[in-house]
UniProtKB/TrEMBL annotation, chain A:
Superkingdom of the organism of origin: Eukaryota
Protein name: Trafficking protein particle complex subunit 8
UniProt biased composition (Basic and acidic residues): 867-883
Stretches assigned to the TPPC8 third Ig-like domain: 1054-1256
InterPro entries on file: Ig_TPPC8_1st, Ig_TPPC8_2nd, Ig_TPPC8_3rd, Ig_TPPC8_C, TPR-like_helical_dom_sf, TRAPP_III_complex_Trs85
Domain TPPC8 C-terminal Ig-like, residue spans: 1301-1403
Annotated stretches, region: Disordered: 864-883
Listed GO CC annotations: TRAPPIII protein complex
Residue intervals of the TPPC8 first Ig-like domain: 680-906
Domain TPPC8 second Ig-like: 907-1050
Taxonomic lineage from the root: Eukaryota, Metazoa, Chordata, Craniata, Vertebrata
Family matches, as SUPFAM superfamilies: TPR-like
UniProtKB/TrEMBL annotation, chain B:
Family classification: Belongs to the TRAPP small subunits family. Sedlin subfamily.
GO BP field: endoplasmic reticulum to Golgi vesicle-mediated transport
Protein name stated in the entry: Trafficking protein particle complex subunit 2-like protein
Coiled-coil boundaries: none
């Protein structure tokens, strides 16, 4: 129970006060009416006595009466109607609402912090009104009238007669048979005569004299002269007098209204019946009805309306009363009580006591005697008495039991609780004996109360008395009113003793179906009890609050109901009791709506819908409908100023994606558009990093190698993972697409209609130097600035997550801020009924009324900042500017289409495709470039148009190569075409340019608006098999530079599936043959090319033809084919392997000088065609790809060698490094072989001829090189070592390498005839040719001394001897060829091996340690014949 | 109906708390986990059980159901407690998450079936 203003004692005392009736004369009423009050009302504020009264009890003890209150009221002849009382109570309760600023105490119980109104004034007023409006019943006397005031005025003609008349009237009411109400305490009621004197009207003397007269007649104790109205209305205005009536009359005003209204209806009804009406209406007793007793209805109305108006005229009570008058009234009451009432009570108590004492012995014995004697006869009487219990009358008014009770009541009223208790106790026993349950219950109740009120509390409060009383009242007597009173008292007492849970049980027991209001109030009090227990029972509190709220709402007390639910909500909120929470929210929403607090209603409903509710679908649907209904009403009520926020569906704002640009055409016939970026792609961090690198690359090249500070990678699609710190740029007249992710949390489907974006736009001119600053801020509904696309309908299935793409098309430059989305929210009709029909015609949906318009903001939280310490320690989020694009002036827009772009290629296959570039904007485009990580994959041809073959008009199946028919198919291999080409012609090898960036040759380098151009493009299948994703980034600029956007890019990802074709291995070795011609003397090599068909797709690819082998190198060129098989077209079917053998020679220029200068930038191309066509390898596709490949490999090599040399530099001496490099150089070849092939492929029953080329780079003599570079990764791995590298193993050149320094050749006749019989010694001249392959001087030592490798050879072949000098030492200059004439001497005919000489070489100026024996020449056999 | 159970169970927590605090005073060590009948309402009987770690179980039984005695309820609680412990022992379970264990689910529903 909540705290009350009154203490318990006060409360109980005030509940039971002496009742005093008032009977006024007509004139007296008129006098008091001047103050807008009747007499009893006039007295009411002064009814509490401030001074103590004294009283002698029967045993002559003085009893002090403190703080006594009396109740003065007009005589009302009818008992209050049940209905009226109810209405009165409910009005009183609903009128008493908690003030807005009422004190709320915060109770902390466990983890709950509850905000509970400390007081419940509505309950107190209810209780007060309830107790006051209790009808007097026969079993008790507490609210029976104890005295009667008879009031007349001094202005009447004959006041004394008037008094007489009034006295008679009173007597008639009390003792007359026709009136049973009000009840009177004692037969001879105290009559107190009051003479009212209006100071403003009559002269005082007359009043005094009448008073004197009265004194004589009634005694000084029984009459009083009250002077009032001493103030005239003139002087009233300037004096401010407190108005003690207002607080009392405010309440009674209600009472009056209710009474009046019922009287009116009652009398009107009665007047129709006519007969019984007379008796009722003829009583001129009711003061406000004094004039009404002639004819009922009309006159009755007047005071009613008066009574209503008067209080509303506000603070006119007591207008004619001065403070003096107040004092007089107060004095009058005091006089009345002390002189009149208390002595009267004292007298009566004494009297009753005497009666009881005198009768006690008699009655006791008598009763017991009668019981004994008529024991048999008593039984039926008992049953009768029980029957009568309910009607309430068992004892005649003069029964001795009632006398005891009467005395007890009197004692109770004058606060003599001791005596009262004992009397009640006796009475209780008697009543119980007689089975008079109603009486017994009453006695029990009062006994308990008086026991509680006894000063010093000698005995404990008998709670069980109360319980029995309540039970009896309720169950036996079926009198809920009394039971309720009893419960209220008891609860209050228990509460004062801190027995909260008992009080709560008591209160809860009293709830019943018959009165919702009572149940509600009691439940609420019970709830308050629970919260006040020693360990607060918060949940019980909440539960009972909800029950109370429910009952309140049933009782029509909506405001109270809402309050209860709100308080309970505090407990249930956020604790996971979602069903209960939803329920409460729902009720709160409903109640607030009916109470016209739509904002609260909406928020409550919103809460239900926002949370993931566990409700069933139907329930959710109901919630949603209710919400929509409420919401609609709200939005209709409020002006259209700002659209309110809608709770549904949930927007996952961080998943919002923004896309700038058009929807692209993807494919058009055989045209295939660049894949670019689209919203359908998933974001891939790695990929975007790649694109970013590509863009950086190309931008750096455009800006002469430096990346501008303001560089910002172009982002076409922004999402949660992209960098959104900067304002994105959008272009005028190009759409902005925002992808919003909606989630429907409900189990019912939702329909959104007219879904569009909400934006704000600030116009800004960027072309002007410092532009007109943001002129004005415009938001939606202005289509001339920005076209907003509207999605007319967007359905969401239950629990679905769906994406909506909303488009904006800006027409002006400026700053755009996308704020949110705006839409109509509606519930889809339940799937049961014909949903589709309604959905189709949106008109009917709208007429359904289930659509509301609202918005939801898109607020995206930026990424958490984590760079500075401050940011690390606190949680801070950066800005996210995804939705705030800047609209820039128009930029060109490129579209790229690929024609005949293949998806599958053989490794090394060459294919020609076309690319169409189209400028679809209104601005010319320039500076078109393309960048890719895989530049070896494609080419657009060289700058010099001579080298680029004209593109054939039709893209038929013709060769991508430029070919020349060489006439005869058996053209000799010696006819080798050679060409010199500089790599610069192919856009490669330039110093500044990075590989991978290619300028695209546009005519005039500008693409006009709307124009398009087709360019040929050659593709070469990647060397490695598998699926390759190749990214192209097209870069272009506007012809006019704008500050905001310097360039734009277009992305394309090509996916190529490469399958294996041929594998080419090549080895070069030094040919030992003596140069036949002087031209080729300086160096020639044998190149073995090993070609294997490793294609696995046997069905598709039938065979490969090697069409041509070309070489390109700075130093070497292929000279002729020395294939033993001949010049046949070399066919390779599946898994076949073929070997080709070529001779290569060093290049010479026209003057015949050797090309060996490294820096020479010119490559020599030499073609050896094996077919009947020569492919000019030095022109576009072939040469292009060759150079591309070179670049990439060089790039890789550059990395590795750079790394190695860094490691070496410290530890190596220069000279040794020299040797190494010299030696290495000597064996370097640097010859690139290009194998051109044709493949015959069967595809869809058609034979296709595919062409391709494979590259092999020969670098070292003797080392095999392969077209499939396998070890690249392994080499790159070296780079990853972080430890300082060990001194590399090749500190000194290996002997193997050194052995290649000198090339030796023996020239001799193959067979020599010698007549041995004639001359036993055969001398054969042999020429030893020594050629220095290296670029440094070499000292050569030639040792001819015999040193047979094994004894066997000696025996078999015999031996020969070199004649002459057996050891030569000669220096050889770089590249020098030296011939040494030797002579061999044979003594027998036979076959000899001349290659026995050993050659040692060392680089000049070096110590001998690095002297190395040179590669021993092959066996040089000579046949010596004897003739 | 679910709503009603929500309210019932929620309110019963107060009684549980009361009982626990009362018991705690008397004997701390050998506390009986089973709290017995918390309170009867018109339609249901509410039984409570508190583990040593203050996890509360509440069983609501139809008032008309007379087959379930105190002992049956007690064993039901014990069973419930055991399987709850199993769930908690799952290293992949984060305390505070809704229980999604199938074993627990089937155990509870089997108990339901058994009583009905």
């Amino acid at each position: 129970m909540a705290q009350c203003v009154q203490s318990v004692q006060e409360f109980i005392q005030d509940s039971f006060v002496p009742m005093v009736a008032v009977l006024c004369s007509e004139d007296a009423d008129r006098v008091t009416r001047k103050n807008n009050l009747n007499f009893s009302e006039l007295l009411r504020p002064f009814c509490r006595l401030t001074s103590e009264g004294h009283l002698r009890d029967p045993s002559n003890q003085i009893q002090v009466v403190k703080n006594l209150k009396i109740c003065v009221s007009n005589i009302v002849t009818e008992p209050p109607q049940q209905v009226v009382t109810r209405r009165l109570l409910s009005e009183v309760v609903s009128a008493s609402q908690p003030a807005e600023s009422s004190v709320a105490n915060v109770i902390t119980a466990g983890d709950y912090d509850l905000n509970i109104s400390a007081t419940t004034p509505w309950f107190e007023t209810y209780r007060e009104t309830f107790l006051q409006s209790m009808p007097a019943s026969d079993h008790e006397f507490l609210n029976h009238c104890l005295a009667c005031m008879l009031v007349a005025t001094s202005h009447e003609n004959a006041p004394v007669e008037q008094f007489q008349k009034l006295s008679q009237e009173q007597h008639r009411i009390q003792h007359g048979s026709e009136c049973t109400y009000p009840k009177w305490f004692i037969p001879n009621t105290l009559k107190y005569y009051v003479l009212l004197h209006d100071m403003g009207e009559g002269e005082e003397q007359r009043a005094e004299s009448i008073y004197e007269d009265m004194k004589q007649r009634y005694g000084t104790q029984g009459c009083y002269l009250l002077k009032i109205n001493s103030r005239t209305s003139v002087q009233s205005s300037n004096e401010q007098i407190p108005d003690p009536w207002s607080q009392y009359l405010h309440k009674s005003n209600f009472q009056n209204q209710v009474y009046d209204a019922t009287n009116y209806t009652l009398s009107s009804v009665l007047s129709l019946i006519d007969a019984p009406c007379k008796t009722c209406n003829d009583h001129p007793l009711r003061l406000d009805q004094t004039s009404a007793h002639m004819d009922g209805i009309d006159a009755l109305r007047a005071p009613v309306s008066d009574g209503k108006k008067v209080p509303s005229a506000s603070s006119t009570h007591g207008a004619c009363l001065t403070l003096n008058d107040h004092d007089r009234i107060r004095q009058f009451i005091q006089e009345f009580t002390f002189r009149g009432l208390l002595p009267h009570i004292e007298k009566n108590i004494r009297q009753l006591n005497d009666q009881l004492v005198s009768r006690k012995g008699l009655s006791r014995s008598l009763f017991s005697a009668t019981k004994k004697w008529f024991g048999g006869g008593k039984v039926p009487e008992k049953s009768i008495s029980e029957l009568k219990n309910t009607s309430g009358l068992l004892y005649p008014p003069e029964a001795p039991e009632l006398q005891i009770r009467k005395m007890a009541d009197l004692c109770f009223l004058v606060q003599h609780y001791d005596l009262a208790y004992s009397c009640y106790h006796t009475a209780k026993k008697d009543f119980l004996n007689d089975q008079a349950m109603l009486y017994a219950a009453g006695a029990l109740e009062m006994a308990a109360v008086s026991a509680f009120l006894q000063p010093g509390a000698p005995r404990p409060y008998p709670a069980h008395y109360m319980d029995t009383a309540i039970q009896t009242y309720r169950d036996v007597c079926k009198n809920m009113v009394l039971a309720e009173r009893c419960a209220l008292l008891s609860a209050e007492i228990l509460k004062s003793q801190a027995k909260y849970s008992e009080a709560a049980t008591l209160l809860i027991k009293m709830t019943s179906e018959d009165s919702d209001l009572r149940s509600a109030l009691l439940l609420e009090q019970a709830a308050h009890c629970f919260i006040n227990t020693r360990s607060p029972m918060v949940r019980k509190f909440a539960f009972h609050m909800i029950l109370a709220g429910h009952r309140f709402s049933k009782a029509g007390q909506k405001r109270h109901a809402l309050r209860c639910y709100c308080q309970a909500m505090q407990v249930y909120r956020g604790k996971g009791w979602s069903l209960a929470e939803d329920h409460i929210n729902f009720i709160i929403g409903r109640q607030s709506f009916t109470l016209r607090q739509p904002e609260n209603a909406v928020s409550a409903f919103r809460h239900i819908l926002l949370n993931d509710s566990k409700q069933a679908a139907s329930q959710q649907g109901a919630f949603l409908r209710e919400y929509l209904y409420v919401y609609k009403n709200v939005s209709q009520a409020s002006a259209e100023a700002s659209l309110p926020q809608l709770p549904l569906p949930c927007i996952q704002s961080s998943a919002t994606r923004v896309f700038f640009g058009h929807d692209r055409r993807l494919a058009e016939g055989e045209k295939q558009a660049a894949s670019h970026v689209s919203l359908d792609q998933e974001y891939d961090r790695e990929l975007s990093q790649q694109w970013r690198e590509l863009e950086e690359q190309v931008v750096a090249i455009v800006n002469r190698g430096v990346l501008p500070v303001t560089f910002q990678p172009t982002q076409y699609c922004l999402n949660s993972q992209t960098d959104n710190m900067r304002f994105p740029l959008a272009v005028v007249e190009e759409p902005i697409i925002v992808e919003v992710v909606f989630r429907n949390p409900l189990k019912v489907s939702l329909v959104l209609t007219d879904l569009s974006l909400l934006w704000k736009f600030a116009l800004k001119e960027f072309t002007l130097p410092h532009g007109s600053e943001a002129s004005e801020i415009v938001s939606n509904e202005k289509d001339d600035l920005i076209t907003t696309e509207v999605i007319s309908e967007f359905c969401m299935n239950p629990e679905e997550t769906k994406v909506a793409r909303l488009k904006l098309l800006p027409h002006q430059t400026g700053e755009l801020h996308i704020r949110g989305v705006v839409y109509n929210l509606g519930a889809a009709p339940s799937p049961g009924d014909d949903g589709t029909k309604i959905l189709c015609s949106s008109g009917s949906v709208f007429s359904d009324g289930m659509f509301v318009r609202g918005r939801q903001d898109l607020e995206i939280q930026g990424p958490r900042l984590n760079s500075t310490k401050e940011e690390k320690t606190s949680v801070r989020h950066g800005p996210d500017r995804r939705l705030d694009p800047i609209i820039t002036p128009p930029m060109p827009l490129l579209e790229v289409f690929f024609i005949n772009f293949p998806t599958a290629l053989l490794c090394g296959e060459i294919r020609k495709a076309y690319v169409e570039f189209a400028n679809v904007s209104k601005v010319p485009l320039t500076g078109l470039r393309v960048v890719s990580k895989r530049p070896e994959f494609f080419t657009f041809g060289s700058h010099t148009s001579a080298l680029t073959p004209l593109s054939p008009g039709a893209s038929e199946n013709c060769s991508a190569y430029k070919t020349v028919v060489t006439g005869s198919s058996s053209s000799s291999s010696s006819a080798v075409a050679t060409t010199l080409v500089s790599p610069l012609d192919f856009g490669a090898g330039g110093n500044g340019s990075q590989p991978g960036v290619v300028d695209i040759p546009l005519p005039d380098s500008v693409l006009q608006p709307g124009a398009s151009i087709q360019l040929p493009m050659w593709l070469r299948g990647p060397d490695r098999e598998g699926v390759h994703e190749i990214n192209f980034l097209f870069y272009y600029e506007s012809t006019e530079k704008t500050s905001k956007m310097s360039h734009r890019v277009l992305r394309h990802t090509a996916i190529i599936c490469a399958s294996r074709s041929l594998s080419v291995r090549a080895t070069a070795c030094r040919s030992n043959t003596l140069p036949e011609r002087s031209m080729e003397r300086d160096g020639s090599m044998l190149v073995f090319v090993d070609v294997e068909n490793i294609n696995t797709n046997e069905a598709g690819v039938r065979e490969f033809h090697i069409v041509q082998v070309s070489s390109c190198s700075k130093q070497w060129r292929l000279h002729s084919c020395i294939n033993p098989v001949g010049d046949k077209d070399s066919k390779l079917t599946s898994r076949e392997r073929g070997k080709l053998c070529f001779r290569a020679i060093k290049c010479r220029n026209q003057e015949g000088r050797l090309f060996y200068i490294q820096c020479s930038a010119v490559y020599t191309f030499a073609d050896i065609n094996l077919g009947n066509e020569q492919i000019i390898s030095s022109t576009t596709p072939c040469a292009d790809f060759f150079f591309r490949r070179c670049q990439t490999t060089e790039l890789k090599k550059g990395f590795t060698t750079g790394g190695v040399s860094f490691g070496q530099s410290g530890s190596l001496s220069d000279s040794e490094g020299d040797i190494a490099s010299v030696v290495r150089k000597c064996s370097e070849v640097d010859l690139n072989i290009v194998v051109l092939w044709k493949a015959y492929v069967v595809e869809d029953n058609k034979q296709l001829i595919l062409e391709g080329q494979l590259h092999v780079a020969l670098q070292t003599i003797g080392k095999e090189a392969c077209s499939l570079s396998q070890k690249e990764e392994a080499q790159e791995m070296v780079l990853l070592k972080f430890r300082p590298e060990l001194p590399p193993p090749l500190v000194r050149p290996s002997t193997e390498q050194l052995s290649h320094l000198i090339k030796t050749n023996l020239h001799y006749p193959e067979s020599y005839d010698h007549p041995f019989p004639q001359k036993s010694l055969c001398m054969v001249p042999v020429t030893l040719t020594l050629s220095n392959c290296s670029m440094v001087d070499v000292d050569v030592v030639i040792d001819l001394r015999h040193k047979a490798t094994s004894p066997e050879t000696l025996e078999i072949h015999g031996s020969f001897t070199w004649l002459g000098q057996t050891q030569y030492k000669l220096p050889l200059k770089a590249q020098e060829v030296h011939k040494l004439q030797l002579t061999a001497c044979f003594i027998h005919a036979g076959v000899y091996n001349l290659g026995t000489h050993r050659v040692f070489a060392k680089i000049a100026n070096q110590d001998s340690t690095c002297e190395a024996s040179q590669q021993s020449s092959m066996p040089a056999l000579i046949v010596v014949n004897s003739i | 109906i679910e709503l009603k159970f929500h309210y019932t169970v929620h309110t019963s927590l107060d009684v549980v708390e009361e009982k626990v605090s009362a018991v705690g005073k008397v004997i701390v060590d050998q506390r009986e986990l089973y709290l017995g009948l918390l309170y009867p309402t018109e339609d249901y009987k509410v039984y409570g059980y508190v583990t040593n770690s203050k996890v509360k179980f509440v069983i609501v039984v139809d008032s008309s159901n007379t087959s379930l005695r105190d002992n049956e309820i007690r064993s039901m609680f014990r069973k419930l407690h055991n399987s709850f412990t199993d769930v908690m022992c799952n290293p992949f379970y984060n305390p505070g998450d809704p229980i999604q264990s199938k074993v627990f689910d089937s155990m509870v529903s089997s108990m339901m079936v058994q009583t009905c």
